[in-house]
Amino acid sequence: MYFSVSGQHYPFVVDAFLRFFQEKASERCVFHMMETDMDQVIEDVFQNRSELGILFMSELTEGFIRKELKAKGIAFHPLETLRPRIYFSKDHPLATRKSVSLEEVSGYPMIVFEQESGVGIDYAEEVALHDLKQADRIIYIKDRSTFYNIVEHTDAFSIGTGLLPPGFSSRHVISLPIEGDPQMMQLGWIKLKGKPMTEEMTRFIELTKEALEDAKKLLEEPAPL
């Protein structure tokens, strides 16, 4: 059996992949889990390197992303609509707050996942939710491990789903709600329109939903010490 999936930098997707692997570990198989940026997720599915892709759209990027997917013959299927949150170190000056505004974090360094095609407004994960012009200092990174290391040891912040499942994220990193009415994040999965759904694809989506629900339950729990 061969199975491949590409996703943006979401720990719950890795959680789902490991659940899937544990179910199939006794079979003869080759698995690929590519954690990458949005444009590469779309390209992996388009080129049939991955059977499924996991990504998000915001109100700002939805028009462009849907146009791009349509041009490549890719279908988007919603998973969940989430209110974005801000990632901090648990020792950050704002970490004791119940929520923070984008104006309050504008003076701190902002971490941005760099895209293969650059950091364009249409693809970047954080730019779609917060104008980079409001950030005095920006740190561009490529992987989630670097993200956790920088957040842990600096007063930098980032913006995303806020989902931090234990075992798949850092216990030194927390997330807080954004005050006001931030643009919502629509998480979903993609596949080529003409590609039939296999048993493995269907099962992976089911496990992704389970991992997502488990991660959501932890949002209201106290941050780990």
Structural commentary:
The chain is an alpha/beta fold and 225 residues long. 29% of the residues lie in helices and 25% in strands. The chain is built from six helices and ten strands. The strands form three sheets. It has a five-stranded mixed beta sheet, sandwiched between helices. The protein has a three-stranded antiparallel beta sheet with strand order 8-5-9. Helix 1 links the parallel strand 1 and strand 2 (30-35). The longest helix is centred in the C-terminal third of the chain and has 19 residues, at 199-217. The N and C termini lie far apart (42 Å).
Short description:
Helices cover 29% and strands 25% of the residues. The protein has helices at 11-24, 38-46, 62-71, 102-105, 144-153, 199-217, and strands spanning 2-7, 30-35, 52-58, 74-82, 85-89, 110-113, 138-141, 158-160, 173-177, 185-192.
Q: Report the C-alpha radius of gyration, rounded.
A: 17 Å
Largest sheet: 5 strands, mixed
Mean pLDDT across the residues is 87
Helix content: 25-40%
Counted by DSSP, the helix tally is 6
Estimated structural class:
alpha/beta
Strand residue content:
25-35%
User: Strands across the major sheet, in which order?
Assistant: 2-1-3-10-4
* Secondary-structure element string: EHEHEHEEHEEHEEEH
Overall shape: it is globular
Distance between the termini: 42 Å
Q: Based on DSSP secondary structure assignment, what is the total number of beta strands? A: 10
Task: Identify low-pLDDT runs.
Answer: 118-124
